[in-house]
């Protein structure tokens, strides 16, 4: 039944920059899992990563040009730190539209997203929810920028377990948009969020 | 006069895993700056990054052992996604204690932290503030886990400009801890946060 759910975020491809970014995510997690290592080993790893960065930086367009490029068109963005297949910081979270007007995504977070021992960082939950509420507004029709966001932490959010992130637009009053969402694990709500968004958009760079 | 400000977060070293993580941060940003590149180039970059991840994963301790290790001792953590020198997701933010009881850090965020065009993602501001409020509680003495966090977005927060992140513990009532903070750019508050923390700590893994 899920085959017809509209995709609200970019799907990572198997090649191109998306594949390199997926590999970079593995490096981020592996460095954290490795911990200290031996100094000689880590110096060698640093050298290999700096060589990759040197190569990419040499061939990268100017920042201003890249900003225009990444915001071109009207489709979903590919660079944000929550869903972006081109952003190695993003888990990434993949969101789909639900028939009831809400949206939903599943994600499992590893060690880079840790706050308390074995648990997701409260600020990472805030990041995921802020973004998901924003996407829920796009899906509902009226969208804008975050004005106020209130997060309630009901229980710890586990690492290494599948989380469900949901959001929906509750109401629109003039330029104010009221939106709410949750992060759940094993059917229990871990974090809930309520946002008031303002119907305002920054111009895309050109 | 700042030489005597106590450091509240781990300082990155010039070698070891910290140097490899600093290089990984360059890779994350460079991939985003590069955008699509050519398919052949990106396939080669993905191969080089996967080789680094393969090598690190082969030699990494078991996750349970690593969790015990990273939480050993009583000092500041080195792995969190905001200040951690071992976490490539962290900008990293470096926080110092102020004589008046508050804390402060300066940070400049690049493209991986983008939300609206050219601006910091609202959820990234939430991540930075949640963490900074927590560190302010440690600095003040009574600390705990986030119960409620309210963020107000006053104006957009710029990328590529130095931001000042501050926080202070305002009061303690029983087990409830009231803490607030801001992110400013050019002397103007962009985002403010108020948190209610609960004096409770998860046991460290052992």
UniProtKB/TrEMBL annotation, chains A, B:
Residues 8-65 form the RHA1-ro05818 N-terminal helical domain. Keywords: Apoptosis, Cell membrane, Cell projection, Cytoplasm, Fatty acid metabolism, Hydrolase, Lipid metabolism, Membrane, Transit peptide. SUPFAM superfamilies: Thioesterase/thiol ester dehydrase-isomerase (SSF54637). It catalyses: dodecanoyl-CoA + H2O = dodecanoate + CoA + H(+); tetradecanoyl-CoA + H2O = tetradecanoate + CoA + H(+); hexadecanoyl-CoA + H2O = hexadecanoate + CoA + H(+); (5Z,8Z,11Z,14Z)-eicosatetraenoyl-CoA + H2O = (5Z,8Z,11Z,14Z)-eicosatetraenoate + CoA + H(+). It comes from the Bacteria. GO terms for cellular component: cytoplasm; membrane. One of its GO terms (biological process) is fatty acid metabolic process. GO terms for molecular function: hydrolase activity. It is found in: Cell projection, Ruffle membrane; Cytoplasm; Membrane. Residues 118-188 form the Thioesterase domain. The keyword Manganese does not apply. It is a peripheral membrane protein. The keyword Lipid metabolism applies. Its EC number is 3.1.2.2. Belongs to the THEM4/THEM5 thioesterase family. PANTHER family: ACYL-COENZYME A THIOESTERASE THEM4 (PTHR12418). This is Acyl-coenzyme A thioesterase THEM4. It comes from Amycolatopsis alba DSM 44262. The lineage of its organism: Bacteria, Bacillati, Actinomycetota, Actinomycetes, Pseudonocardiales.
